[in-house]
UniProtKB/TrEMBL annotation, chain A:
This is Cytochrome c. Residues 25-114 form the Cytochrome c domain. The keyword Transmembrane does not apply. Keywords: Heme, Iron, Metal-binding.
Automatic annotation (TrEMBL), chain B:
This is SCO family protein. Keywords: Copper, Disulfide bond, Metal-binding. Disulfide bonds join 96-100. Cu cation binds at residues 96, 100, 185. InterPro entries: SCO1/SenC, Thioredoxin-like_sf, Thioredoxin_domain. The lineage of its organism: Bacteria, Pseudomonadati, Bacteroidota, Cytophagia, Cytophagales. Residues 58-222 form the Thioredoxin domain. The keyword Transmembrane does not apply. One of its GO terms (molecular function) is metal ion binding. Belongs to the SCO1/2 family.
Amino acid sequence: MRKTKGIAVVTGILALTTLTQCFTEKQNEGQRLYEANCQSCHMEDGSGLRNLIPPIASADYLQKHREELPCLIRHGLEGPILVNGQEYDRPMSGLETMRTDKITNLLNYIQTNFGNNNERYTLQEVDQLLESCPPHQH
Amino acid sequence: MSNRNKFHFKKSIITAAIALSAGFFYSCSESGARNQSLPILGEREAVEREVNGQLEVDTLYHQVPDFAFVNQDSQRVTQETVSGKIYVTDFFFTSCPSICPKMKSQMLRVYEEFKGNPDVLLLSHSIDPQHDTVAVLKDYADRLGVQSNTWHFLTGEKDSIYDIASKYLVAVQEDGDAAGGGFTHGGHFILVDEQRRIRGVYDGTEEASVDQLLQDIPVLLNEQQHAQN
């Protein structure tokens, strides 16, 4: 009886650790995606580059254009934009093939790091916002 | 009381140690700056010649050939522009989505440090001169906040640019790969002396490597000054 209890406890701890690991992995996914896709232009600290590349850090754009961001990640953007009162006008390439869950993780990482403390997205919300901009047929 | 004495003793030893090591450090860095010299890079050639019946050997160092490009202000930039100056050069393109922003953020450090010194120039060549016209380069330089005429953003004949890149020992190539923006190129910063010889190669995407460049520029300036006197 005692032995069974012991095994149960061990199994429980193992399961919990695995689960936590999974979540941590998922949490880090946003960061990994940022590093792989965004960092070379927007920099490690999200500061951007002078008046060429807009900052991610403490950028009002993230709140003002919250609902457009999923499509912006998918298709990129072209033409002038205003970030913290400064005009920027460089094209950004999109991540056409990135899945909805990854876009969600990436956006949540951006919205809650680099001095940003903005509302997170749910998967459903991003899914809905992406409906207006289906992936291009290649 | 004895404890207190012990403490004092310890403290004085530590102070002495710090003073001593600081002294060492100072003397090292001082003599270092004076004696330090930068290597001359690239292939060299031994040329024999006869002087009064005696055979003498001269070493010919790799030298960057004459060039002619146009900068962001539509001014011609040639070997005359860099004559009597040292310069740092790199290769980039304005629509580059990969390493260029990082390179430019690091080149800005060099610019900020030496923009007041007319003897130190920066030459950034576009490897996409078709797209990077004078107007595009002007906008790029303005947005980087570059006002001084010590940093030239260059465009010109594509073949000439690719050719001179190889003379700076930098690999550039058009590859048509969309992810890299259509071009591959080394992220190097090259330090060139008054005689257009290569004196240092740095990784323009690595802060530590650019730290080294910032230390090497004064060493080269110092050497040139001594050569003049």
